[in-house]
Amino acid sequence: MAPEQIRRLLDFKPRVNGEKRLHTLACLLLDSGLRINEALSLRSDDVDLDNFLLRVHGKGGKDRVVPISYEMRKLMWRWLRTQQGGGGLVFSTRGGTKLNYHNTLGDFKRLGNRLHITGVRFSFHTLRHTFAVNYIRNGGDVFRLQRILGHTTLEMTRRYVNLQKSDLQAVHSKLSLLSRR
User: Fold this and answer.
1) pLDDT by residue (tens digit) across 2-21?
2) 3-state SS assignment for residue 77
3) Spatial strand order in the sheet of 53-57
4) Distance of CA 54 to CAs 47, 77, 78, 112, 168, Å?
5) In whole angstroms, what is the distance from residue 52 CA to residue 69 CA?
6) Per DSSP, what are the bridge partners of residue 64?
7) Residue whose C-alpha is closest to residue 149's, from 130, 166, 162, 165
């Protein structure tokens, strides 16, 4: 996603509970790189706001710990305050059951239309890719990214961070011995 599209999504001001849930979910995916099913399966007991960490039950039954930002901590705290009791799903239906992926994706696509986000596949997986690319662009290393994303191989992580020529040029300019003179 382009920076302006990310900004529109982050600046969205939800009014009703369903919009607040969707916005918090989208921000979580952008902030942490979680898979949508990992986020939808996240339980409030898995959220450690004191240490800015999530315990994620990942693909293939592999658990991992994923960091979140200070800003995401504030959003998550506000969202969890509205939820019933501890230990339940972080993002659930009114009845406390797991959200249906297809219904949630439909709501997300409608939000994208409302925010005029076009020219990009507006999906939960796009948020995961956006997280990965921005993590590397902002100085993160591929080994930590691999752990955060829950990939077993660096090859899979490499597929996520298809950097543009301009990214490569910017890094080269910063690191070139000739540019430092």
Assistant:
1) 999 999 999 999 999 999 99
2) helix
3) 47-48, 53-57, 63-67
4) 5, 13, 16, 26, 32
5) 7
6) 56
7) 130
